[in-house]
Amino acid sequence: MKKNLLDLDYIINADNYRNIQDSIADATDMAIITVDYKGKPITHHSKCTNLCKFVRSHPKLSHICEKCDSRGGLEAARLNQPYIYLCHMGIVDFAIPIAVDGQYLGAVMGGQVRVEDASEMESLEKITSQKTDILEYINKNELKELYQSLPVMKLQKVRANAAMIYNICNYIVGEAVLKINLSDGAISKETGYNNYQNKKTSVNTEKLSINTTKKDEHTHGELLNSRENIILKPALDYIEKYYTRNISLNNMASLCNISTSYFSKLFRRTIGDNFSNYINRIRIKKARELLETTDIPITNIALDLGFEDSGYFIKVFKKFEGVTPSKFRNDAL
């Protein structure tokens, strides 16, 4: 297995995933946090209850909470399915394993609820047998009040929510791994690419070809026809349409639902140039057209094409064309 596929934060877009996590927590009325295989959080704690915030603020009790999370995740990985259990506070929690090719990467930890029918709790395992005198650390009345404030639901509903999150996580991680494997050539075009072809994800290479020589156009066309564009297509489409805007690397990575570091690496490998040069190359191509066919002032062309000022535009133009915009215009007359 590739080393990068062992890094959960690498194969998913953490920022986008956090938004999904928040939405699921709101929809299910359950607390959720995602951790890597070491138990280190890669997201914040969505909808964490006041009781759990209170308990985790006490070092000795927080240590037991961490043990519960660790054991819950490992047990879910062993079972390869959602694992619902009771934490040391008697609260219903669950762990959703995240694995790639049988390798445990981390888990989605959720729950922090009370079960409507107390008798149903008898079927749940208490994840830790460590005994703690809770009242030694927490005021009895305050504990009772916080416990009563926990969301209440049927165990069947807890199971349904855990199953839903399990399926969502499998889909998100599976799609991310598929994209990485496709871009690295680890799986064939036939086995993984056809599903995307059915969704009409091919790129219009004629519109996106920006190089100035026949040789460059041919090379660029080959790149645009490659399987990497399954991933990069949303960004390439956006840049083609909005190249005059201020386009950031972070926003384009988010649009493709991959991490910024992976987007940058994949973009350079696929296009053969870095992100900023690619955008500037498109702008300069348009600038050449305007300089050859109009008498629009150079300053206006620079601003219209998204450059901060004419000085930077002139610098970039000379880098690509070997001459200044004014000389290029004069030579074209």
Automatic annotation (TrEMBL):
Keyword DNA-binding: yes
UniProt entry keywords in alphabetical sequence: DNA-binding, Transcription, Transcription regulation
Molecular function in Gene Ontology: DNA-binding transcription factor activity; sequence-specific DNA binding
Region forming the signal peptide: none
UniProt cross-references to SUPFAM superfamilies, sorted A to Z: Homeodomain-like
Residue runs in coiled coils: none
The keyword DNA-binding is assigned to this record: yes
Stretches assigned to the HTH araC/xylS-type domain: 233-331
UniProt protein name: AraC family transcriptional regulator
Organism: Ruminiclostridium papyrosolvens C7
